[in-house]
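In response to reviewer comment 3 from the previous cycle, which asked for concrete evidence that the modeling workflow produces usable outputs, we include below a single protein chain processed end to end. The sequence was submitted unchanged, and the resulting structure tokens are shown without manual editing.
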Amino acid sequence: MAKKALGKGLEALISMKEDLEPRSDAVSEEIDISLIDINKDQPRKRFDKEKLNELAQSIKENGIIQPLVLRKEPSGRYTIIAGERRYRAARIAKIKTVPAVFRDVNDRELLQLAIIENVQREDLDDIEEANAVHSLMESYSLTQEETAKVLGKSRSNIANTLRLLNLPDRIQQYVSEKKFSAGHARTLLSLRNEEDQLAAAEMIIEKELSVREAEAMAKNFYKKKDIKEKEKNIELEFAEKKLSDYLETKVSIKGSRNKGKILIEYYDRDQLDELFLKISKSDE
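The workflow returned the following structure tokens.
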């Protein structure tokens, strides 16, 4: 079977990616930092304050070595394509102007370049990266294999990254807050429902489990639970049968040994009267 040709969208992305960083011979301009705006669709939402302060101190001492990549706006302002971390550190350092080069891109290309830059630089946390990769695939209708080519990653890496988005929001937040790793989170995908995933996540945090320990916990999560459930069902089935035999009608028990409901069926008024007499007699 012939290999599928890369789409024009993918070719354009690869071309943009290669043109993202300023060439060594590119001439930069000094731009008033007050005229620069961040990209509102920037996939990166969290910036480490300590690392920003360290970069700010370096900028104070050495300046900004690598220019920002900006887009000129009709209003006379500029939007960041690449280099938001440098921009934020420069503001902390109270730098008035920053070196910049320019790229002529539309809004969609602006978003895609921001995603590519952050993912390739590993500047995103695992959940931000998963959302960014998903956005990239949706915008350009890319397969996982094509996305891997654009980002310089393996297809299995892309697949594992996207799997995180199948987890509940609270667990995704735990990953972003670094309460446990993406590896921990992926072990929870084997559990049956959101309630069990959340319970297991709390256990990982409370017991400070390693990824391997979390895998073992997830693998054995249902063993004791299933045994208890089976024992409970046998006991309730036995009780249903005894009550049905005694009352001579169908009896259903809903719930557990600790709490539930007993449903007694009757099919006419005479049978209801007989049931009432039997139950009343048993209370004497």
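Residues 214 and 220 are 10 Å apart (CA to CA). We consider this sufficient to address the reviewer's concern, and the full set will be provided in the supplementary archive.
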